[in-house]
Predict the 3D structure of the following.
Amino acid sequence: MERLDGNAIGGVLTEVFGREMTIAVGVCGSCGATGPVAELHVYMRAPGIVVRCPGCENVLLRIVQSERRTWLDLSGLRSMQIDAPG
Amino acid sequence: MAGTAVLGRLTWLVAEVAGLVTETPRVRTILLDVPGWPGHRAGQHLDVRLTAEDGYQAQRSYSIASPPGEPLAITVEELDDGEVSQYLAGELREGDEIEVRGPIGGYFVWEPGGEDPLLLVAGGSGIVPLMAMIRHRAATGDRTPARLVYSSRRLEEVIYRHELEELAARSDGLEVVLTLTREQPPGWEGYSRRVDTDLMHEVAWEPEQRPSVFICGSTGFVEAAAGALVELGHDPLRIKTERFGATGGG
């Protein structure tokens, strides 16, 4: 399973959050590592996307999409800082 | 900064193929005419969606090759097991319509006018978003010292080769360093090594010069190049990376 990075989920995150998210800064709920979404480890395998901490590989985000809804698990994140649009 | 990248939701737009350029035997540039396209920044990508007659949909991301302000273009490499890339790089014809949405990404983006030198490191088709930056730099007359380190397997696979030669020949501060890792033409005087610490030591700016670094390629390539630069003392926070999967982009 090829590992990508958070740039690859820029589209799906914009769809969910309504703004550019690859520059948002997340804090790992396990090790406390802090960094932009673009640098997170991303595994894309339909139907789900798994996002892990590049420091400790803790699962930060899980995203599953269907035509009618998106399911988002953020339980591995301690916090996320998102800039105002513009 | 340009608000177009962050404002509003992503909407699928109909794109008509306005032109096709064969870059290498497996790589094509697709010029797109997209009414309603909001514009983009150098380094961003877009999503492409294809819909079959039976309703089956496939979606992939591709880096934008054109600089801001010029007609939209993506460059696609045909992958052996890539259903979307095979269609885009092989079967698509002028006048065909596909769907796109974007621009996407605000991290792997370069704006002219900075003080720091620019170090661009590309592996294979990882050149595409970096080419948008190089073209943007040229189009805006920016004189930021820039160096491209571009690793390909062989000379015939170097995407945008002639344009890169022309831009480097302008002597406006852009240097192009090629390394051909699998096969070199007779008399080749460039590099033939993989990107590693030794190569980076020879061709990258010194850490004290505080370059802005953008690295794009396969995951293995990106980690090797970024690891080498960090080992040489470059600040990890100044190194921006974007990874393609081996089947990435599909």
Strands of chain A lie at 4-5, 25-28, 34-36, 41-45, 48-52, 59-65, 70-73, 77-81. The longest helix of chain A spans residues 10-17. The radius of gyration of chain A is 12 Å. The mean pLDDT of chain A is 93.
